[in-house]
Amino acid sequence: MSALRGEARVALAICRKDALAELRGRHATVSTLFFAAVVLLLFGFALGPDSARLAAAAPGLLWLAVVFAGILAMGRLHLLETDDGALEQLALYPVARRAIYAGKALAGFVAMLLLALLVLGAVGVLFAVDVASAWAPLLATTVLGALGVAAVGTFYAGVTVRLRAREVMLPLLMLPVLAPLLLGAVKATSVALAGDPFGELGAWLQLMLAFDVVMTVAGAATYGFLLED
Amino acid sequence: MAHHLRPQTSMPQTTIYVSPRSLGAPDSRPPAVVTTDLARLFAGSPALAGVSLQIQAGLTVALLGPNGAGKTTLLRLLATAIRPSYGRAEVDGLDVDREAHLVRSRVAYLSHATGLYDDLTARENLQFAAAMLATPDAAERVERALADVGLTDRAADRVRDFSAGMRRRLALGRILLGNASLVLLDEPYAALDADGLGLVDQLLAAWREVGVTVLVASHAADRLHALVDGGVVLDRGLVAGVEGRGVTSVPPNLPAERRPSPTRVAS
Amino acid sequence: MKTRILGIVALAAVALATYVALAVVPADLNQGDAQRIMYPHVASAWLAYLSFGVTALAGIGWLWRRDLRFDSVAVAGAEIGVIFTAFAIWGGMMWGRPIWGVYWQWEDPRLTTTALLLALYVGYLLLRRLTDDPDRRATRAAIVGIVAAVDIPIVHFSVEWWRGLHQTATIASPDRVLNPAAPMVFVGTLLGMVAALTLAWAYLMIRRYQLAEAELGREERARIERLVSSRPITTSGEVAR
Asked: Which of A43, A127, B201, C197 is the most exposed place for a label (fewest CB within 10 A)?
């Protein structure tokens, strides 16, 4: 049991280090948020100006913006490990590999949750969607969605960080895998906003939860192999 | 459990924390490093082509040779940063491939890259390292390490603003946070000013005194001469020769008819 | 030699099965001749999933045993799998066009899942191309293959649920054929096609595996030659320069 506590401590230390580095690093966090906002704006131009159509499309646009900005955010969290061989040094500490994954995924989750909540608010404003009416299920959806993107993104960011063409490989690898999460999140969001007339919300949230659990376990189990050379 | 000893030198004192494993006369302990036909290939070409060495515990050994000889590769293999392509290596009797996680808790490695986070301060970098190393009394140890490498006055500055020499010193400070029984240094003198060079000399003396095994790769053979017990020379991925005491080598594993008998260089 | 026999048998089986599917088995009452493509389409889809499973398992084998032969199996599975996946999608589209009037139907779970499978395969193969060192390539490919394989069942279920809300029967399903009421000739033709294509798959896998091993073999021999020192050793143990 104390071994697990030690791992948790390591994961928290890594999460704290990531948060500190991100907050200090040349305002990149803010840039990612603005990117999401710009994406939403462009969706408005591409699909508008019919506000009914935009309101109907809002759940999809919300999660697409989150996923696209999420690719950038998750990529950045591993990019900071390229500081003078930091990732190699990280691999040399006598810590469990899955604790390293957990720490970075936790930092990713916090970033994604923040991002998703802000995008949710922006979507409410831009596409005239009443997010406040269904705030509880929307919050649950957002938490599960952020968790999924963080779990998958941390893994693939680790895979691609030392590759050439990593900027295109990260989305190329991440996006197909995220398809079921995207599907579930959009469905859950639109069902929640409609007041859940057929009682399907539970099923979609369960799908997202299953995705999150499976992907986190798979990521934690295989991330360690990335750290050996 | 850790003991801490303050070596008596004329320079400002350094605190080295050692584990009980490092105590005891060198001859009484099992060899710190044993490699058998150790080889490592990168994209098909051998950086290390079959090295069989034994390094006695508690001694300081220099690793010499021209660029590309395989010094860095050997250190990285022992640090478990990379896996062997052929052969095996053991640190304190632990296989670097199969028991890597155990090896990591006994080895400290200073590489060319410092592995420091640019956006964190010196102190924060060491605090993170202390969390990773599970250093006891972390806050106090971090301050002591900063003092030992002479970076206390810059502790709150971001590493981004540090010179290469200061980064090196901070990386050495990170080593002081652990209690490694084997310290691997790759070109420790590079990019250091006079104070920094003195610090490395002092650390080498301190480690030697407390019985930590040290393997130093360096071009500065003449500077190291007085500080080491023995040396091994690498050339093109193979052992070209050994000197002094504490190191023995066996030529690479060749087909039986070409295999000479192992040699031991007299101390 | 045995492989060549397998190849000939596979070719004959595929030819026979194709003939049966095109000429012997009666056309579907509702869909007419267009339905005939279901046989190779379904068989290909099955082999696409099988290939992916093989790739993922071979990846686990590499991580466990560090034997590069596992990686050769993995790359064979991925490349042959891409072929069958692409064919399955093409077949699905060809089937759909006369039935639906359009090439693509989002409500068809098999079509969308197979398209995603193709995306996962392509990502896997591109990743392999970007790494030169065989060991590193094998490790990266293995973990990506495993995570992708773990994703497939989730994709399958999620797309099924997605479609389920629209209550539109899936055209591209063998359910219409594989039920107790269906005449044996339909079931028999489908199973025959599956068997024939599986033989072809096995032949292609073996050949691709041999090719991968040959490529590695060349590198491996060069490695060993370089490792075994050809320089003379003096009696004191020093290597002469």
From this structure: B201
